């Protein structure tokens, strides 16, 4: 058996920030999950509906692993990423750091993991691995998945080798906090303004505040768009509230990050952003409830209401990010 000593196996709300917390706490840097999410400029929005999708997808964060890269850049961390098409080399890339006493982050398809009861393919799932024996790998996943968990070595290999949307080529990574790394508190403003600027000036119309406004227009059509409204609409609502988002499509996490930041920075712009994201978080939960009820009842009026709330959310989040962008002034 190979096991890294002293690993804090607390599970968080979101997979990538849970894994980041495990790796950084082992390096002596203990930050809250909202702080990791915010310093990684993790908040975003995406409305996606393609020919290969059974139903529209609403995303509330940046794409998988971008948060990790941004966090490493912001905090001056040494991020070592390894990818390979070889299953043998992929295992060596994990076993080496573990044997040297370092937990390892993995990006994989959660569908194949033994402990996942909801069998849905998601190739952007991230876990921390801290040990293995002849039969199983020992992982840290989110609190709702069990925190400290294990999966068979064949299931782990299958999850890492999976190909499809958002997957990576057996991606593994380690993080090191170098001596002389900047204090996280000195990096709050760059992280917040980078997130705000990306949200306010998205490259396409279905991202950022423009994407929320687009979702508000299209959500009215969801009963007709769905193959099975009683299945598809409640599932969309669950993904917004319960599928590792921390609630309210990641807005709870960002609200709590901004609240923590107000304890460090005295800024009216920051307080305004926090107040507006506290309001937005409640409205996202309301939106999810309306969408779920529309699917369960077939009542199109619920989607008309959801449309109006999303229109208001587009305005609130635009105003919040405009205020937060002024932190750099």
Automatic annotation (TrEMBL):
Residues 14-142 form the Butirosin biosynthesis protein H N-terminal domain. InterPro entries: BtrH_N (IPR026935), DUF4872 (IPR032369). It comes from the Bacteria. Pfam families: BtrH_N, DUF4872. Residues 155-324 form the DUF4872 domain. This is DUF4872 domain-containing protein.
């Amino acid at each position: 058996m190979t096991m890294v000593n002293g690993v804090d196996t607390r599970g968080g709300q979101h997979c990538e920030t849970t894994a980041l917390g495990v790796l950084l706490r082992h390096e002596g840097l203990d930050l809250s999950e909202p702080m990791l999410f915010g310093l990684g400029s993790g908040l975003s929005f995406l409305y996606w509906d393609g020919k290969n999708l059974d139903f529209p997808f609403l995303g509330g964060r940046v794409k998988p692993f971008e948060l990790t890269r941004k966090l490493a850049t912001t905090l001056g961390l040494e991020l070592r990423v390894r990818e390979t098409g070889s299953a043998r080399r992929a295992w060596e890339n994990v076993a080496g750091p573990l044997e040297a006493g370092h937990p390892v982050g993995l990006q994989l398809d959660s569908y194949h993991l033994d402990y996942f009861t909801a069998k849905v393919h998601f190739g952007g799932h991230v876990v921390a691995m801290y040990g293995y024996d002849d039969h199983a790998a020992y992982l840290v996943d989110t609190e709702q998945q069990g925190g400290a968990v294990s999966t068979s070595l064949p299931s782990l290999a299958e999850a890492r080798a999976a190909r499809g949307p958002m997957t990576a080529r057996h991606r593994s990574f380690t993080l090191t906090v170098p001596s002389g790394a900047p204090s996280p508190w000195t990096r709050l403003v760059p992280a917040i303004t980078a997130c705000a600027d990306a949200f306010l000036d998205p490259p396409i119309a279905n991202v950022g505040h423009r994407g929320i406004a687009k979702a508000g227009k299209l959500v009215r059509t969801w009963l007709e768009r769905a193959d099975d409204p009683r299945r598809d609409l409640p599932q969309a609502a669950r993904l917004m509230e319960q599928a590792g988002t921390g609630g309210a499509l990641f807005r709870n996490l960002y609200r709590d990050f901004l609240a923590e930041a107000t304890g460090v920075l005295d800024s009216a712009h920051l307080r305004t952003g926090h107040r507006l994201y506290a309001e937005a978080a409640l409205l996202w939960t309301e939106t999810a409830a309306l969408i779920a009820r529309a699917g369960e009842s077939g009542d199109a009026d619920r989607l008309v209401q959801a449309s109006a709330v999303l229109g208001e959310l587009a305005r609130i989040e635009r105003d919040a990010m405009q205020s937060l962008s002024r932190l750099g002034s």
